Amino acid sequence: MDFTPAAIFDMDGVLIDSYHAHYRSWLEIAAAVGKYFSESDFAAAFGRTSREIIAHFWGEGVCDDACTAAMDARKEAAFRRLLEHDFPAMPGARELLESLAADGFRLGLGSSGPPENVALVLEKLAVRKLFSAVVTGADVTRGKPDPQVFLLTAERLSVQPAHCVVIEDAPAGLTAARRAGMCCIGLASTGRTRDDLAAADLVADSLHELSPALLRRLLIQKAEGKK
Predict the structure, then answer these.
(1) Is 205 in the active site?
(2) Cβ atoms of 4 and 163 closer than 8 Å
(3) Among residues 2, 10, 64, 201, which one is catalytic?
(4) What does the angle CA 212 – CA 214 – CA 1 come to, to the nearest 5 degrees?
(5) Residue 199: which of 189, 186, 209, 187 has the closest Cα?
(6) Spatial CB neighbours of 224, under 8 Å, sequence gap ≥ 6
(7) Residue 205 belongs to a domain with what CATH number?
(8) For residue 115, what are the domain limits?
(9) CA 65, 70, 74: angle at the middle one, nearest 5?
(10) Are 131 and 148 in contact (CB under 8 A)?
């Protein structure tokens, strides 16, 4: 391999098992405004930006920009409060990041979450120094499945998209990675099944299954035009 490889991580459902904390924070916001919000509603939207979820479930145009911003801020503050109380680190996350960095991979984070959430997670995991690029929802104007977040991360890493492997847990994120021209690994975390991740080049049940050698092999196969 005569190029510098990169691994781009989604955050929610990949570095942290945040499914339940996100759902509980959405329930809190829905109850405050008298709205019903089922777990199936949440599961279908998990991985999209908070503002997209508000527009979808509360009605496009029903909540103006100021209302949406206020709901968004309140929901994310509730989410961070839950994380402070009980931080659900994904098993094997820190070990995988450290092994990839030691093997010469450039590491990027491409998340739809707000900067405050990302900063909290990186602080709790104690891995901020391992990342050469961090892109949050505040850096992009289009959420997944648009590839903007991953393309911007690759740009900040100074790595070609074809030399990047994305680790994602959401179908929208996998679509974004493919549209960006990147390899993608689907992680079957809480709320996701292997069938949900059929668009991935590889599906894993745990981060412990992944390694620098495996990611390098995927990139070589892509370069050779193989699945």
Answers:
(1) no
(2) yes
(3) 10
(4) 70
(5) 186
(6) none
(7) 3.40.50.1000
(8) 6-16+89-223
(9) 150
(10) no
Q: Which of 17, 45, 4 is nearest to 207 (CA)?
A: 17
CB atoms within 10 A of CB 67: 13
- pLDDT tens by residue, 9-61: 999 999 999 999 999 999 998 888 788 888 888 877 776 777 778 877 776 65
Helices (H), 103-189: 115-125, 148-157, 171-179
The closest alpha carbon to 196, from 12, 144, 205, 150, belongs to 205
Residue type at position 170: A
Tokens encoding 88: 């659900």
Active-site pick, 2, 12, 72, 103: 12
Residues 33 and 103 in one domain: no
Q: Are residues 116 and 201 in the same domain?
A: yes
Examine the residue annotation and report whether 12 is marked as an active-site residue of this protein.
yes
Q: Enter the tokens of residue 224.
A: 């050779």
Whether 198 is covered by a domain: the verdict is yes
67-77 pLDDT, tens per residue? 888 888 999 99
